[in-house]
Design a protein that fits this description.
By secondary structure, this protein is an alpha/beta fold. Helices cover 49% and strands 11% of the residues. The protein is built from 14 helices and 8 strands. The chain has helices at 22-25, 40-43, 46-53, 71-84, 95-107, 114-120, 180-198, 206-228, 233-246, 260-272, 276-308, 315-332, 346-359, 371-380; strands at residues 11-14, 31-36, 58-62, 88-93, 130-134, 146-151, 156-161, 167-170. Helix 7 (180-198) packs across helix 11 and helix 11 (276-308) packs across helix 12 (315-332). 49% of the residues are buried. Zinc ion is lined by residues 139, 189, 192-193, 262, 276.
């Protein structure tokens, strides 16, 4: 195990009706900038719950933070917050609203352009304090410092580190209004987050391995039920806890991490607008097929055994079976796993490889995922195939 230091200060407030406790968490007299997405919270009652809880506060609303939030939209929100004199930011929504809120709260007191903050990779502060009301389990943004922001003008998407939310309110009932496609993308994103931290090489930490495997097994069990069955409170609780645990730092103590699937996925989203979780379902199986011969072999065998129960056959067969099960899992929750199934072709691969060559990227736990490996991975992810399990259409 490597040395590590760890601190996660986010207070989680979890369960039914937890939004009603909001005012206990925000200082009396605070001027609150409320950030929202495209309007789902108006239709499912979350907006009403939030505004009821904040009746005593001076609030200013900003609407229209899009999925894969753009720096251009954040600039508008920053101007609104400055004019209001906001000294508290409350994000009400999914990862996109929360990520935008991280940039906005890092910019309100700064004279730097928000895109410069993103490109520097780390926001230094001072920050306006941030709280969240989470409406979709997926990113873990409610309990981490990460934020991913796009620039519409250049079709770029980059991550930076901002501040942790002071608190996050998680009421599983607010997820009942989520479309099946968003649920599926949330399951895929959480699954991918765990794999990014787990699927490197074994022998680093038994605890981190088993923790990650427990979360993967949980998603394997509940993922299809969450997507296809009517909402069930206990299942949604487990889903939300798993999604938060998947990316709040707890499963990464002292172990190396990969993240190359995310780096490639971000380019696909920036260029083609494919939903984040879906992009990962396309890239991950192909990445594993390429990287099994570049350092991931032993961990893939452990994963085959402990997560998919594959013990028969030679090593090569067990590894391919585990990757096929992974791809089959994504397909079983309604997500296609090939670029061609999403009308993405060679031109996009070329552009991503070109960008990665220019940036001289070296992603992954050993820095082995460069532009040439990305080319190989995306070509493996390209073709449709009749031998893959069928994908049941989501609504
Ligand atoms: O905008 P509204 O109308 O609210 O609709 C949203 C949006 O269309 C809808 N939605 C959210 N909660 C709902 C709901 N619809 C009905 N009922 C509800 N309860 O769902 C759609 C997707 O929302 P979004 O916030 O975009 O989804 P998600 O949470 O998956 O966030 C995706 C963004 O997070 C980034 C991604 O790259 C992407 O930009 N990520 C952030 C990470 C982080 N901060 O740590 C890590 C991740 O790997 C990821 O990169
Ligand atoms: Zn993700």
């Amino acid at each position: 195990m490597q040395n590590f230091s760890f601190k996660n200060p986010t207070k989680l407030i979890f369960g039914k009706d937890s939004i009603s406790t909001l005012s206990k968490e925000i200082p009396t007299g605070a001027k609150v900038l409320l950030l929202f997405g495209g309007g789902s919270v108006k239709r499912n009652g979350v907006y009403e719950q939030v505004t009821n809880a904040l009746k005593e506060y001076d609030t200013k609303e900003f609407w229209g933070i899009e999925s894969n939030p753009k720096v251009e939209t954040c600039r508008d929100a920053i101007a609104v917050g400055r004019a209001h004199g906001s000294d508290f930011v409350l994000a009400v929504g999914g990862g996109s609203v929360i990520d935008a809120a991280k940039l906005i709260s890092a910019s309100l007191l700064s004279d730097k352009d928000p895109w410069d903050i993103v490109r520097r990779g780390v926001a230094k502060g001072p920050f306006v304090p941030l709280g969240t009301v989470l409406t979709i389990p997926a990113t873990g943004s409610e309990m981490n410092r990460g934020s991913v922001i796009s620039k519409g003008e250049t079709k770029e998407k980059f991550a930076f580190y901002g501040q942790f939310p002071i608190f996050s309110i998680i009421d599983p009932e607010v997820t009942y209004s989520l479309p099946k496609y968003q649920l599926a993308c949330g399951v895929a994103d959480s699954f991918a987050h765990i794999l990014e931290q787990y699927m490197t090489y074994p022998g680093q930490s038994r605890v981190m391995d088993r923790w990650a495997e427990g979360l993967l097994l949980t998603l394997q069990e509940i993922g299809p039920k969450v997507v296809w069955e009517a909402p069930d409170y206990d299942l949604r609780c487990d889903f939300m806890v798993t999604a938060t645990m998947a990316l709040n730092g707890f499963i990464a103590w002292g172990v190396v991490e990969d993240w190359s699937t995310h780096m490639i996925g971000h380019e696909l989203t920036a260029l083609c607008n494919i939903t984040h979780g879906h992009s990962l379902a396309v890239v991950f199986p192909a990445l594993l097929r390429v990287m099994k011969n570049h350092g991931k072999r032993e961990k893939l065998l452990q994963y085959a055994d402990r997560v998919w129960g594959i013990t028969a056959g030679n090593e090569e067969k067990r590894i391919e079976a585990a990757i096929a099960m992974t791809e089959g899992f994504f397909r079983s929750i309604g997500l296609s796993t090939r670029l061609e199934e999403n009308a993405i072709g060679e031109d996009i691969i070329e552009e991503i490889v070109h960008r990665f060559r220019e940036r001289k990227v070296q992603f992954g736990e050993k820095g082995l995922v460069d532009a040439e490996k990305t080319n190989e991975i995306l070509h493996l992810a390209l073709p449709k195939s009749d031998t893959l399990p069928a994908v049941r259409p989501l609504e």
